Predict the 3D structure of the following.
Amino acid sequence: MVSRAQISPVGAHYGLGDWLSQRVTAIVMIVYTVLFLGIVLWHGGLDYAAWKALFSGNAFRIATFVLMVALLWHAWVGVRNILMDYAKPMSLRLALQIAVICLLVAYGGWSVQVLWGGP
């Protein structure tokens, strides 16, 4: 019996999972964008008062947080795949992946702080 490691010793073979997660996160981002544009068109623009009113309730904050999670996951899958393809020394790839993860986690924390962190 031939094991998978003997056939292809490189790559993580995420394939279908990556493809599906990229499509699902893209759909989430499209739905949010259409929702946001619909709100802007409905109100005839978006001034500070309308912007503040939009984010005063939790519904749009949660929708924005879902957008941010989808965006960060979408970015992670894309960057990880690029690094797996083009960063050949394993140590360089690992260092870059750790840096990207730290950056994306920081962006996620910043998003929470902006959405729920204060006045």
